[in-house]
From TrEMBL:
Domain of life of the native organism: Bacteria
Pfam families, sorted: Cons_hypoth698 (PF03601)
Compartments, as annotated in UniProt: Cell membrane
Family: Belongs to the UPF0324 family.
Species name: Roseomonas genomospecies 6
Name of this protein: Sulfate exporter family transporter
Ranges that cross the membrane: 48-67, 79-96, 108-126, 138-160, 166-188, 200-220, 232-251, 272-290, 296-319, 331-353
InterPro entries registered for this protein in UniProt: UPF0324_pro
Keyword Transmembrane: yes
Length: 356
């Protein structure tokens, strides 16, 4: 008799590569153009006013505005935007200087939790004042306060949000997140922020993990290290927030329908604590213990830099500026005002903790 439940064989690595190749090559082309422009800046002006990370985003957005990559490119660009970026973030753990963590102070961890909690409440209040439905207000608040699209995707099934709400929230945060990356470094001279202060500020403000790398690289290595650490600690707040929402939010249904069943109270661990964060913390621990050789540190740093530029190109290729018109004015207003409030709260924390 044939075995009806025989598991299907896993595809081999050579079988996985061809579908990824077109998109990865496209991202490589955009990255190459960004690196070439950075080199040209250095030759003409003596320094790069726009880093390759930022240029890769801008070139990707420009390409996406005039040409929409088809299905042939999607697997590779998604792989570059997610998996390669996750590997880059993990490798950055080896670059974390123990002195950086000590300089940030033990109060920073508690401060990050407080910022997230306060930002959630303020953002939700702004959304409701602007007339957003409760679940849409929760999505915008979580996206702004924690980690952008990832927080929206993790929160939506827990609160019973429908597809239209999720699409509207993600559409705007995708575009607004890129604008934040481009404009945030301009605040350094305006606000008189040091590299340490800006790293904390960016880590508390920028939406997504990949974007923190592009937002802090123009300021310096210290800002990258501190910003990445703060951002990852902020991402870890997603777990408690999702569990709290699962306990607090009552399922609702449309008229004439049964209420939706309550989602499980314990979402999958991999969605609350991604593998690359665990890898980042592990490498940071090994660096602190002095178990990573200097040659390996340099290799990790260089690999992280190359992979990050590739992922920034993929990020730009995935941003359609026309999505702004689909999000709606109220969602746009709620997202912008919530982001401004988050920035003000972040600056308040920096002053409160006396970070220099």
């Amino acid at each position: 008799m044939p075995r009806l439940c025989q598991p299907s064989p896993r595809p081999s690595l050579p079988a996985l590569l061809p579908p990824l190749l077109p998109g990865v090559l496209l991202c490589s082309g955009v990255s190459g153009a960004a690196l070439a422009l950075q080199s040209l800046e250095e030759r003409v002006f003596g320094q790069a006013w726009l880093e390759a990370l930022v240029l890769a985003i801008l070139i990707g957005v420009a390409v996406r505005s005039v040409w929409t990559p088809g299905r042939r490119w999607k697997a590779g660009t998604d792989f570059s935007a997610r998996t390669l970026l996750e590997v880059a973030v993990m490798l950055l753990g080896a670059s974390i200087d123990p002195a950086t963590i000590l300089a940030a102070g033990p109060g920073l961890v508690a401060g990050i939790a407080g910022v997230v909690a306060l930002a959630l409440a303020v953002s939700y209040g702004i959304g409701r004042l602007l007339g957003l439905p409760p679940r849409m207000a929760v999505l915008v608040a979580c996206g702004n306060s924690i980690c952008g699209n990832s927080a929206i995707a993790a929160t939506a099934p827990v609160i019973g949000a429908d597809g239209d709400d999720v699409a509207a929230a993600i559409a705007f945060t995708a575009v607004l997140g890129v604008l934040v990356v481009l404009l945030l470094p301009l605040l350094v001279p305006l606000l008189g922020l040091s590299a340490m202060q800006y790293g904390v500020f960016a880590g508390l403000t920028v939406y997504a993990v990949p974007q923190i790398l592009a937002a802090t690289a123009p300021v310096g290595a210290l800002s990258v290290q501190v910003g990445t650490l703060v951002k990852l600690l902020r991402v870890l707040m997603l777990g408690p927030v999702v569990v709290a929402l699962a306990l607090l939010v009552k399922p609702e249904g449309h008229a004439g329908e049964r209420p939706k069943a309550r989602p499980p109270l314990r979402p999958p661990l991999r969605r609350l604590v991604p593998w690359f964060i665990l890898g980042f913390l592990a490498l940071a621990g090994l660096r602190t213990a002095g178990l990573i050789p200097d040659a390996a540190l340099a290799a990790c740093r260089n690999a992280a830099g190359v992979l990050t530029v590739l992922s920034m190109a993929a990020l730009g290729l995935g941003v359609d500026v026309r999505m702004l018109s689909r999000a709606g004015l109220r969602v746009m207003g709620a997202a912008v005002l919530s982001l401004a409030a988050l920035g003000a709260i972040g600056l308040g924390l920096i002053r409160l903790l006396g970070i220099h």
